[in-house]
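Weekly sync, protein design subgroup
Attendees: M.S., D.O., the rotation student, P.L. (late)

Item 1: inverse folding check
M.S. brought a backbone from last month's batch and wanted to see whether the design step gives back something sensible before we order anything. D.O. pointed out we never logged the input encoding, so this time it goes straight into the notes. Structure tokens as presented (198 positions):
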């Protein structure tokens, strides 16, 4: 199996407004021009505001399937949020890599995305927090991510190097014991505790 990274997105942590208060977040990422360095703790030029829940060796890079973007565009339109009719840019959901060709149902912990100059290993699902609601513009976004299971997944850096938009990757299967979709469902049902996490 193979796929493509459509965008490599980064952001410095910055203040965003959530329920009338300011919080730090690195969720609003934008596509980088040219090659981006991939290091054990993430992409060069990228920051996580709360390292207790984002970042670290096992969550160095966050990937999200572009195939889910039409869904988010539609629900934003239904919620009539500000600028709901503007196309969502890659990186909008906080992902570093916007991927084509690899869904959560096809991703297993330990699988490796092999690029020309780096290798990234699938490590765990992303669990949404209240900041997703703020960025998406309506207060049911995190709940919809939980209900749909369209969470994306974190990647650990196995081989540092560089990445750029447009690169192809080959999926190298790991032990295939724990699937991302199953792991996400097991940790979010029935308590839905992930929505309240930071």
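Designed sequence read out in the meeting:
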């Amino acid at each position: 199996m193979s796929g493509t990274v459509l965008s490599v997105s980064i952001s410095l942590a910055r203040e965003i407004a959530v329920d009338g208060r300011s919080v730090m977040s690195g969720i609003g990422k934008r596509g980088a021009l040219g090659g981006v360095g991939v290091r054990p703790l993430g992409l060069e030029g990228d920051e996580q505001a709360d390292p207790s829940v984002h970042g670290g060796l096992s969550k160095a890079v966050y990937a999200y399937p572009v195939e889910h973007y039409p869904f988010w565009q539609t629900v934003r339109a239904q919620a009539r949020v500000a600028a709901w009719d503007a196309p969502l840019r890659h990186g909008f959901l906080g992902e570093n890599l916007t991927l084509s060709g690899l869904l959560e149902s096809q991703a297993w912990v330990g699988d490796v995305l092999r690029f020309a100059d780096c290798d990234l290993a699938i490590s765990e699902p992303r669990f949404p927090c209240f900041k997703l609601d703020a960025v998406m513009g309506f207060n049911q976004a995190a709940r919809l991510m939980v209900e749909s299971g369209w969470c994306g997944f974190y990647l650990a850096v196995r081989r540092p190097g560089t990445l750029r938009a447009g690169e192809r990757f080959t999926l190298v299967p790991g032990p295939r014991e724990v699937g991302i979709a199953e792991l996400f469902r097991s940790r979010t049902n029935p308590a839905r505790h992930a929505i309240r996490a930071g």
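Discussion: The first strand starts at residue 2 and ends at 10. The mean pLDDT is 90.
Action: P.L. to compare against the previous round before Friday.
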